[in-house]
Amino acid sequence: MTTSLNFNHTNSDRCNTCLLAAIDIGTNSIHMVVVEIDKTLLTFTIINRKKDTVRLGEREAKTRKLTTEAIERAIASLKRCKDLATSLKVDHIVAIATSATREAPNGQDFIQRVLLEVGIQVDLISGYEEARRIYLGVLSGMDFQDRPHVIIDIGGGSTEIILADVHEPRFLSSTKVGAVRLTEELITTDPVGEIEFANLRAYVRGMLERPINELRCQLGDNEQPQLVGTSGTIETLMTINALQKLGEVPNPLQGYRMGRKEVKDLVKKFASMTYEERLKISGMSDKRAEIIVAGGVILVEAMAMLTLDNITVCERALREGMIVDWMLTHKLIEDRLCYQGKVRHRSVYQIAQKYQVNIKYSERVAQFAQSLFEQLKGILHNWGTEEWELLWAATILHKCGLYVSHSAYHKHSYYLIRNAELLGFTELELETIANLARYHRKSIPKKKHEPYSKLPDTYRKIVKQLSTILRLAVALNSRQIGVIKTVECKYDKENEKLYLYLIPTDSNDDCALELWNLDYNKLVFENEFGVKVVAILNQISIC
After folding, report:
1. What are the tens digits of pLDDT across the range 349-360?
2. What secondary structure, in 3-state letters, does 457-525 show?
3. Among 208, 258, 215, which Cα is nearest to 234's?
4. Pick from 406, 434, 432: nearest CA to 420
5. Residues whose CB falls within 8 Å of the CB of residue 88, separated by 6 or more in sequence, listed in order
6. Cis bond leading into 191, ω under 30°?
7. Which of 247, 381, 397, 481 is buried most deeply by CB count within 10 Å?
8. C-alpha to C-alpha distance for 314 and 253, rounded to whole angstroms
9. Torsion angle, CA of 206/207/211/213, rounded to 10 degrees?
10. What integer pLDDT is reported at residue 458 of this predicted model?
11. In the chain, which residues have pLDDT < 50?
12. Counting Cβ atoms within 10 Å, is residue 220 exposed (0-12), middle (13-18) or buried (19+)?
């Protein structure tokens, strides 16, 4: 979801441009970038940046909840971001939260407070979705040519490692090793003792072993990828290296290259120094000095395991990827990134194939669901394109639970969808899709059902209303062979009746099973929308 700010622009030039602010709420810092999007050239220009180190990942020892102090720091920072966006007359704000919020038991409470106190809708995204958006950000700022690239982004709570080319990300991973996380959990000495440093390295290798092995399996026999690094840890290492080698920091830093041995030597040196000594190094900030050893170890071990000797920095990453994703979603990009614009559909079909869904049947149900959705829009509901995409995904996957068992398969569908690596969706959208599939049959949504009850009010309403449309679409395809060709809706407002005119594919087919299932499932729809459903086959009323 996007937070829109309504301003009346007097400059006619703004018709072809818009200002977008992207906010990344991470474990260590809150970053905001403000860009001007040129709708004619389909490009964006960065006009402002803001960063606050708030350490949101600070947790209560026993409960693992975000601390009250960390939440207050984050909200204060977000208020400053909102004030800056307002002063710049930004048209839209997109905000996402990652590892710290994702893992905290009170993460959703924090998001709700941000909405109420700051007025910004924050989307929680999965680690895989975070990796995908990092890829989009890097792709927008680098020429991949025909060579595969490994992208590493070292955050406060997680590290994303990606294998990609100019067409698509071949492999996405997110591992729970981050500069803040490891510093808090594994470093107790200052300077870092030899045994502790060895344990830190061993732990990182163990955590990265699986994703890096899986990544290597995606490489061709003769492919040698280029390593690209993003994030504060890598930019700090590059800055310090440049100052020591060149006496100045290149402007921009983008494209600066550093060897593995140089990285290793710097990290080893940092580990042998106290915090106060690291703080005196030119190019080192006070907050970065606290976590640079852990972040540096992640990079050193990753480079060694990947057997890559050099790394190139890219200053574009997650925030810029959020902007590219927004442009894709709003159909502003249709050239070399058009493939990425279809990521939701491709991801849904990939999961459908994985769980052996009958694609033709699901697509037929989706056609009926869309027909009902569009015909009833503005009459019984006011949902739009974004909500239809959630219903579409749920429709394609509503029977994936059969892969586990026929018994209560709708519940299995919920579990499989919720834990699938569906790209292009936020965590809240994934939860909504899973709930829509869950309630296409049997029980209606109830507050005692925990996953449903935890949804925000608007999303509970989406589930309640759109799941009833899915029920009708499923009923109209009971035999899974397309016996009903089309359905036409006519609403009699005065008598509160909804007529469904059904046209069979074969005029001799009485569609008895479909009509029986429709009669059985229509009650949930009738109760939700306060109408009486009357089905008519070949102009003959049967209800």
Report:
1. 989 999 999 999
2. HHHHHHHHHHHHHHHHHHHCCCCCCCCEEEEEEEEECCCCEEEEEEEECCCCCCCHHHHHHHHHHHHHH
3. 258
4. 434
5. 19, 21, 34, 47, 48
6. yes
7. 397
8. 8
9. 0
10. 94
11. 4-13, 336, 540-543
12. exposed
pTM for the full predicted model: 0.80
Could you identify the residue written with the tokens 């149900």? 365
Tokens at 398, concatenated: 């509503």
Taking residue 488's Cβ as centre, other Cβ atoms within 10 Å add up to: 12
> If you search the block for the tokens 């029920």, which residue do you land on?
471
Tokens describing residue 49:
């940046």
Asked whether the beta carbons of 150 and 228 are under 8 A apart, the reply is yes
- What radius of gyration, in Å, describes the C-alpha atoms of the chain? 26
Residue 436: strand, helix, or coil: helix
Quick one: CA torsion of 393, 394, 395, 397, rounded to 10 degrees? 90
Phi (first) and psi of residue 411, to 5 degrees = -70, -40
**Which distant-in-sequence residues (6+ apart) come within 8 Å of 109 by Cβ?**
none
- Contact between residue 92 and residue 21 where contact means Cβ atoms under 8 Å apart: yes
Backbone angles phi, psi at 139, to 5 degrees: -60, -30
Residues paired with residue 93 on neighbouring β-strands, in sequence order: 3, 21
H or E element at residue 71 = helix 68-87
- Supply φ then ψ for residue 540, to 5 degrees: -115, 120
- How far, rounded to the nearest angstrom, does the alpha carbon of residue 380 sit from its chain's CA centroid? 30
Asked whether the beta carbons of 21 and 90 are under 8 A apart, the reply is yes
For 67, how many CA atoms within 13 A lie in the half-sphere containing its CB? 13
3-state secondary structure 162-187: EEECCCCEEEEEEECCCHHHHHHHHC
Residues 522, 394, 326: CA angle, nearest 5 degrees: 130
Q: How far is CA 370 from CA 235, 303, 383, 463, in A?
A: 47, 48, 12, 15
Which single residue is written with the structure tokens 């959990």? 185
Q: What's the token pair of residue 96?
A: 């996402």
Please report which residue ranges of 145-284 form alpha helices under DSSP H. 179-186, 194-217, 232-246, 260-271, 275-279
In this structure, are residues 44 and 38 in contact, taking their beta carbons and an 8 Å threshold?
yes
The domains located in the chain, with CATH, are 3-125+321-329 (3.30.420.40), 143-315 (3.30.420.150), 343-541 (1.10.3210.10)
Q: Quick one: tokens of 219? A: 């490489």
DSSP label of 308: -
Task: Confirm if 305 and 175 have CB atoms less than 8 A apart.
Answer: no
Residue 50 exposed, middle or buried by CB count within 10 Å (0-12, 13-18, 19+)? middle
Both tokens of residue 156?
């406060």
